[in-house]
Amino acid sequence: MTVARHLTILGSTGSVGISTLDVVARHSDRFYVAALTANYSIDKMLEQCLRFKPQYAVMLDKTSAEKLKNKICAAGINTEVLSGVESLEKVASLPEVDIVMAAIVGAAGIRPTFAAAQAGKYVLLANKETLVMAGHIFMDVVKKNNATLLPIDSEHNAIFQSLPRNFTGDYSTSGVRRVLLTASGGPFRQTSIAKLNDVTPKQACAHPNWVMGQKISVDSATMMNKGLEIIEAHWLFNAAPKQIQVVIHPQSVIHSMVEYVDGSVLAQLGNPDMRTPIAHALAYPERIECGVTPLDIFKIARLDFEMPNFTKFPCLGLAYTALETGGSAPAILNAANEVAVESFLKSKIPFTAIPSMIKQVMQVIEQKEIFTLDDVLEADSLARKAAYELLDTLSQKES
Ligand code: NAD
Ligand code: MG
Q: How far apart are CA 295 and CA 298, in angstroms?
């Protein structure tokens, strides 16, 4: 009999969190849900607690935790309800936990994700912002603590699957030449630059192939998602910026590719469904069924590829610049992007102001070397402050 592996899901009420629980529910003999976490969504969390009966449920927000506690008590289940960032860190590093799914959105995910790596867990990384903000520090923590890092982002999971097993990041001896990072192009691939100024949050969140949380959906529309993924690929696979080629592939069937020196190009294909990379990482190195519809290549019939458009999507160029600048630049890029996306979602700025806001924040905030997680968090908060000030100036100009 195999012992069920204990799992903490950070951000269990989100899109990736829900897909993770869907896979886990199909394999209750393999996985035991030890802890679930969320921000405010009490009802979804209660529903998940009733179904999976975790040992812990953490709500970041204290008031939400109190309300959840009452409901859990009334339901008579044995789940301990906690709150605050320290509790997120606690459940990410519980001694009995083997696997941590890091699926909180944005910079808020960084501290618990670090805690999981520090505790030497299997870290299933969906929260790309951790690598964007603190790439080398996070990779060092993973190495030092013998943690295992498995990418959940579909492109990085595809690259991981297409690289030689146990790839160490050495391009000269492994025969790997570069990675081809695919992108759907988002909902505005065919929209003219002139029309981009007027697109609405609803249009931006209507991704053609993937159903995802709001923030990553807007990132896909601006192509900042691909920008963040370039930085993510750099850290995960030790790829220099020029070894990462973005390829627009509107069908989202090839999830990314690896090019070798002998001319081979290996790719991972599948229907666009996050349960595939999630199942791959949960059971690694085994394979498990996860409810994904098999790919019908006859129905797909054709696959298209285009070069990315850096003029229409300036976020791509901003991300390459941040990666090449290094230090705190990617953390500044990420923070400014989070504020800009949130402002766009609240209809405070137009879509096209997202890249210009990020560019201005990157110009205003001095880039520094980073040595610790605190250095990263300081850069993050300075950039957020600058972005909010810029937002104030913009709204004063308007009124
Ligand atoms: P989502 O918005 O659907 O869910 C986010 C989760 O994080 C929720 O459970 C929410 O309660 C929690 N959360 C939000 N703010 C928090 C905070 N301040 N503190 C603690 N918890 C908080 O997001 P998502 O689409 O599932 O994305 C999660 C992460 O996975 C992101 O980093 C995203 O880039 C990455 N990712 C998502 C997809 C996808 O298909 N959705 C694909 C690839 C990568
Ligand atoms: Mg992705």
A: 9
